[in-house]
Every structure is written in structure tokens, then in C-alpha cells.
């Protein structure tokens, strides 16, 4: 049995990148399996199928969970895509 997941992340501010990325690989994916990530103005939607049924806690609190990793990848991608619209403050390293 395949479990389908639709994970929505609502953003506090508008997103510079709007689009759809298909065939996003995930950890331990069977051949031909991948996810889709959709970026809209104020939301990220991850569409995924997994053989295992996960609870919300298993997804959000287990950093080895493939859906957790997809959430992290989608946020990092958005962060990088949005950097082109503003100047970053200088990075400070404490030694």
C-alpha cells in the first residue's frame, strides 16, 4: 500500500521563486520514485508517496526521515532562490 503525503508550508512573506520542481529524489527511493515540490507566492507544497505510514512527529522530529529531509531541502532551495532579491548583511564569525 502506498501512502500519499501533501505537506504545506505557509510562508510569512512573499516568495521570489514561483514554480514546480518534479523528480526530486529522496533517500532510499525505489527506482523511478521521486517527489514534487511546488512553490507559490506564500506556500511550499511537497507531494510525496512512501511505502511507510509516518505520523507528524516521525516526520518533524526525525532528521533521518525522508520527508523531513525533503522539507529541509525545499526550505534551503527557497532561501537560496530568494537571496537574489536582497543584499545579505555581512557574516560575523566568533572565534
Unreliable spans are 88-95
**Strand-pairing-aware structural class:** alpha+beta
> What order do the SSEs take from the amino end to the carboxyl end, as H and E?
EEEEHH
Mean pLDDT: 86
- Discrete helix count: 2
**Alpha carbon gap, first and last residue:** 52 Å
Percent helix, as a range, is 10-25%
The side-by-side strand order for the widest beta sheet comes to 1-4-3-2
Q: What Rg is obtained from the alpha carbons, in whole angstroms?
A: 15 Å
Main beta sheet strand tally, sense and closure = 4 strands, antiparallel
Describe this structure in words.
With 95 residues, the protein is α+β, with helices and mostly antiparallel strands. Helices cover 24% and strands 29% of the residues. It has 2 helices and 4 strands. The chain has a 4-stranded antiparallel beta sheet with strand order 1-4-3-2, with helices on one face. The C terminus is likely disordered.
Summarize the structure.
The chain contains two helices and four strands, in the order ββββαα. The protein has 95 residues and is α+β, with helices and mostly antiparallel strands.
Amino acid at each position: 500500500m502506498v501512502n500519499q503525503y501533501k505537506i504545506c508550508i505557509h510562508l510569512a512573506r512573499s516568495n521570489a521563486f514561483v514554480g514546480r520542481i518534479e523528480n526530486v529524489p529522496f533517500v532510499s527511493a525505489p527506482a523511478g520514485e521521486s517527489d514534487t515540490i511546488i512553490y507559490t507566492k506564500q506556500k511550499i507544497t511537497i507531494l510525496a508517496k512512501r511505502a511507510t505510514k509516518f505520523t507528524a512527529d516521525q516526520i518533524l522530529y526525525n532528521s533521518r526521515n525522508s520527508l523531513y529531509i525533503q522539507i529541509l531541502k525545499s526550505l534551503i532551495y527557497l532561501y537560496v532562490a530568494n537571496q537574489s532579491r536582497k543584499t545579505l548583511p555581512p557574516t560575523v564569525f566568533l572565534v
